[in-house]
Specification:
Layout (H helix, E strand, L loop, with lengths): L4 E2 L1 H9 L1 H10 L8 H18 L5 H11 L2 H4 L5 H21 L8 E12 L6 E12 L4 E8 L13 H10 L10 E8 L6 E6 L2 H18 L14 H15 L9
Parallel strand pairs: 1-3, 4-5
Antiparallel strand pairs: 2-3, 3-4, 5-6
Helix pairs in contact: 1-2, 1-7, 2-9, 3-6, 4-6, 7-8
């Protein structure tokens, strides 16, 4: 099967294990069900977006938002029963309240876009990349653009001299934003949100590193187009394959529990 549109998550999976990428890609053609943990994450991101847009400004509005939009139907019949659903609800509610009290907006920043999907073509290829920037900040005095991605899990540090594939993809996509915000500096910030703490990890994206590592990304994308050329790696699956297979089994048997806790 041929594919031309890719996301950072797909590229990261492919770089970790080609077979895991193949399994994950094939699974996309299944029922289309979304696991409860992913459902909770989507809900939290939606709430964070409304805070950043100024639609949620006080606890009462957060409570109303929870009452109107909490995905009860997708979560009510999960392992763990009411306790599991209650923990997920409290996790989301406390996370939104905490972020409401301390939203991410450094001094000098202007919120110019929220939950923005960006798609760009790979030059010279019939390949496209796409990602969603949860928050885009513009610093007019510095002529700096900051791309913000929210996470619910612990942030991972990477060697600055070896940018992660997802980082390179986001730097490539940022070129589409340069017409509107002619930045001279580009920052990528990962923000870990939760009910009890928040952490930020920012890196300055360098054009020189991008030019060095980008050809390898293009090579990977070309390989990813045709799943028929992806071979296995022996009889024993790796940790990535096991994780994908476990998720597939859970979705088929509707036993994927909500693991987020308040």
């Amino acid at each position: 099967m041929d594919r031309t549109l890719f996301t950072p998550a797909m590229l990261e999976t492919f770089r970790a294990c080609k077979r895991a990428y193949q399994l994950a890609f094939q699974n996309e053609g299944g029922s289309g069900r979304v696991g409860p943990s992913a459902t909770c994450k989507r809900f939290v991101l939606r709430g964070l977006a409304d805070v950043n847009r100024g639609r949620l400004t006080n606890p009462s509005q957060v409570q109303k938002f929870m009452g109107q939009h909490w995905p009860l139907e997708q979560l009510h019949d999960q392992p763990g029963g009411k306790d599991s659903a209650t923990r997920a609800f409290l996790y989301a509610y406390k996370t939104l309240l905490r972020y409401l009290g301390t939203p991410y907006k450094p001094a000098g920043a202007e919120v110019v876009a929220v939950a923005t999907k960006v798609r760009a073509r790979v030059p010279g290829q019939r390949l496209y990349l796409e990602d969603v920037f949860d928050l885009i900040l513009w610093y007019p005095e510095e002529k700096r653009l900051e791309l913000v991605i929210f996470h619910l899990k612990t942030l991972r540090k990477n060697d600055p001299s070896w940018p992660a594939p997802a980082t390179l993809v986001r730097q490539h996509l940022a070129e589409r934003l340069k017409v509107r915000w002619p930045y001279e500096k580009l920052t990528l910030t990962m923000v870990k949100v939760g009910p009890t703490e928040s952490k930020e990890l920012s890196i300055e994206l360098e054009e020189s590193l991008y030019r060095i590592h980008w050809p390898e990304i293009v090579k990977n994308l070309e390989e990813m187009k045709d799943l028929a050329h992806i071979d296995g790696h022996g009889e024993e699956p790796c940790v990535y394959c096991k994780a994908i297979e476990s998720k597939m089994v859970s979705e088929n048997h509707e036993t994927d529990p909500v693991t987020l806790t308040a």
